[in-house]
Structures are given as structure tokens and as C-alpha cells.
Amino acid sequence: MTFNFYIMELEELGWSVFFEEAFQNYHDMGFIPARITAQHANLYTAMSEHGELEGKVTGKFRFNTTERSDFPIVGDWVAVKGNGVTGKMSIHGLLPRRTALERKVASNLDLITEAQIISSNIDIIFIVLGLDLDFNIRRLERYMFAAKESGASSIIIMNKFDLCAGVDDKIEAIRKIDTDIPIHVTSALGKEGLDAIQEYLRPAITISLVGSSGVGKSTIINTLLGEEKQRTGAVREHDSHGRHVTTNRELMILENGAMVIDNPGIRELGLWGDESTLGSMFEDIEALATQCKFNDCRHRTEPKCAIKQALEIGDLEQERYDDYKKMQRELFILARKKDQRARIRSKEIKKMNGNN
Ligand SMILES: Nc1nc2c(ncn2[C@@H]2O[C@H](COP(=O)(O)OP(=O)(O)OP(=O)(O)O)[C@@H](O)[C@H]2O)c(=O)[nH]1
Ligand SMILES: [Mg+2]
Ligand SMILES: [Zn+2]
After folding, report:
1. What tens digit of pLDDT does each residue of 220-241 get?
2. CA of residue 266 to ligand 2 center, whole Å
3. How much distance in Å is there from the Cα of 285 to the middle of ligand 3?
4. Which of the listed residues 143, 160, 167, 219 should we mutate to test ligand 1's pocket, taking the one with most ligand atoms within 8 A of CB?
């Protein structure tokens, strides 16, 4: 017997055949599945058939895990030993992620390049922009890249409409990057335009809100929740310290059964992924490149270069092209670092085996 008022069915938490199959071995060993809803340092909270549970990963899990991205994060399904009476659990395994929103993090002066998972097993990403802040299409491109890489679908919310005179030119700029992505204009504070957002909130659907600090992510969630659950805050001066109001990720369950993850504002979204995703965002550029005279045209001094021609006559915006090159270069460097890292790893493993 447990003391939880309401015990959720796994399907209500987003469980599906995908996880069922991945869980089979754990099931045979007597584990139960749970979905991570919050994390404070190394202490996790999760929802399960036994209600809410709290606990850490086991020593063995820790020992066997080298990549930061292989530790559980909010949204993940994990295999646990749990006790519904005490509310305690220990986490023994991490199930594969159906979708994952990732970014590159550089630590130790960029010596270690690794992925940080922002949220996992999400269905829809809400990319939130604040219409009061300077509209930066290049920053948005990075969010759109990460969203595409994630495997989830995404929408754009242009919030704080009450502080902005016009949005048409901004929408037009977005349409140049993506002709299909749904764009919604809202005022979370004035509770305007949120009916359209409500449509996305379906039972067992997981939504993650991302965007810079102060754009109104938590305010949107509060409005959707119908209560002031998430702390919100005025945008302070653009100093680099202590500007973020939300400091912890949390998965919340709305009354209608949808789940939302509030995220701290992201200052810089380092690209994590591969070039094919970039190609799908810049199809026009890739198509132009196929029309260059030379197959290996670098679009610099080569004659009959379709890209240079398009730039000259204004068919292709210089800024957009520059950004494409920049992102391409960033992904190239990332791929090289990943390679280096994999080589070091395999050397380490060989060494270890050799010493045995
Ligand atoms: N005028 C106006 N202000 C808004 C709107 N939405 C949010 N705000 C205000 O903007 C400030 C920042 O909102 P938050 O919801 O805390 O922003 P956030 O995106 O969660 O920020 P972080 O948690 O730091 O990432 C608060 O003072 C809100 O009241 C809006 O539609 N219009
Ligand atoms: Mg917030
Ligand atoms: Zn060319």
C-alpha cells in the first residue's frame, strides 16, 4: 500500500512500445521504470507506478558511466528499485532516449567537448522569443538547428507582443529559414494568444520550453498551469552573473495530462549534431552549390560560381550565407574533436586491456 493520492499509469507519463522493448531486460531482473521529473545536484525525483520516488544512481552506474550525457536528466526513463511506502529509489539504468535536445558544452578551456542534454523524450519544443529584446535571427537559427537534431517537432512563440509594435518583418525573416514551422504571437502576461498554444497540450505529450533568459518561459507555464508555480522575474541588466530566474529544470504535469519542462535560459547554444541537419535548413544554399561549375567549388575565386552570383544579384543574403559558413565550420570542428576524443578513448581502452 502506498500513501500517494494518485498513482499514474505509465502511459500517462509518455511510456510507449519504444521504452517497453528497451526495458525488457530490466523487467526480467525485477526493476521498475520511472520518469525523471527533477534533479538537484545528484538527487533525482521521478514518477513511477509507485508514485513519486526520490534517489540517486547506484555506485555501479556511476562507475560504468564516463560520458556526462549518459547520466539521467529530466525527461529520461530510468530502471529503478523503488519503494512506494518510503518513496525512495535507486537508479540502476538509463533507457535509450526517443528524442533529445542537445547542445555542445565546452569545459576546461574547450579541452573537453561534450554534449549536454537539455531535455529528453520530448514531443514538442517551444522555442520562445521575447519581442522586447533585440530580435536575433542568427540565435534563433541555432535553436532551430538543435530542435531539428532532437527528433522532436517544434514551434516558435513570439512572446511579449504587448511590448512590440510589429512582427510581420520578423515572421518574414523566420520564414526564410523555415517555411513550415508554426509561429505563434503571444502576450503571456496579458494572457493573449495562448489558446493556440493550449492546442499543443495533449495528454501524455511532453513539451520543453527553451529560449534566452527573460523571454517569459516560466510566465507562459504559469499561465498554462493556471497558477504562479514557477518563479518569474524582471529582466535585469545584461550582466553575465545571476541573471537567470529559473535555475533548475523540472517536468510538471498539467491538469489535462500534458507534461511541460521549464528550462533555465540558455546564454549560448553551442551546436551539437551533424552537417546533414544544416543542409536541411539551408536547402537553397546547398541547391545553389550544385550549380557551381566545379564540383569542389569553395565559392571564393572560382569562375562560374553560383553562390557568388546569387550573392551579387541579391538572391542570397550575405548575412545568411556567412551564418551558414560559420555553422558549417563549427560543426566541422566539432566532428574533428569528437574523432579525437574517440581515438583517445580507444587508446585508453587498449591500454587497460593490455595491462590486464
Ligand atoms: N510585458 C510582458 N512581460 C512579460 C510577458 N511574459 C513575461 N513577462 C515578464 O518578463 C519577465 C521574465 O519572465 P520569466 O517568465 O521569468 O522569463 P524566463 O524565460 O522564465 O526567464 P529565465 O527563467 O531566466 O530563463 C517577468 O518579469 C515577466 O513578468 C509578456 O507577455 N509581456
Ligand atoms: Mg524561467
Ligand atoms: Zn561556388
Report:
1. 998 888 766 667 666 544 443 4
2. 10
3. 10
4. 219
List, as one string, the DSSP characters of 245-288.
S--S-EEEE-TTS-EEEE-PPPS--B--S-HHHHHHH-HHHHHH
Question: How far, in Å, are 29, 161, 169, 186, 263 from residue 165 at the CA level?
Answer: 60, 8, 11, 13, 28
Rounded-to-integer distance, Cα 54 and Cα 33, Å:
13
Q: Provide the whole-model pTM.
A: 0.84
Mutate to test the pocket of ligand 1, among 232, 236, 260, 261 (most ligand atoms within 8 A of CB): 232
Distance separating alpha carbons of residues 57 and 271, to the nearest angstrom? 29
Give buried/exposed letters for 222-253 (b at 16+ CB in 10 A, else e): bbbeeeeebebeebeeeeeeebbbbeebbbbb
CA angle, corner 165, sides to 320 and 125, nearest 5? 55
Domains present along the chain, CATH in parentheses? 10-94 (2.40.50.140), 100-262 (3.40.50.300), 275-355 (1.10.40.50)
From the CA of 244, give the closest atom in ligand 1: 24
Q: Which helix (H) or strand (E) holds 25?
A: helix 17-28
- Residue identified by cell 511590448 is 163
27-76 pLDDT, tens digit each: 999 999 999 999 998 999 999 988 999 999 999 999 998 888 899 999 99
Residues with CB under 5 A from ligand 2 (ion): 217-218, 245-246
Residue 156's identity, in one-letter code, is I
Predicted local distance difference test score (pLDDT) of residue 241: 40
pLDDT digits (tens, 9 = 90+) for 82-126: 998 999 999 999 999 999 998 877 665 555 677 788 899 999 999
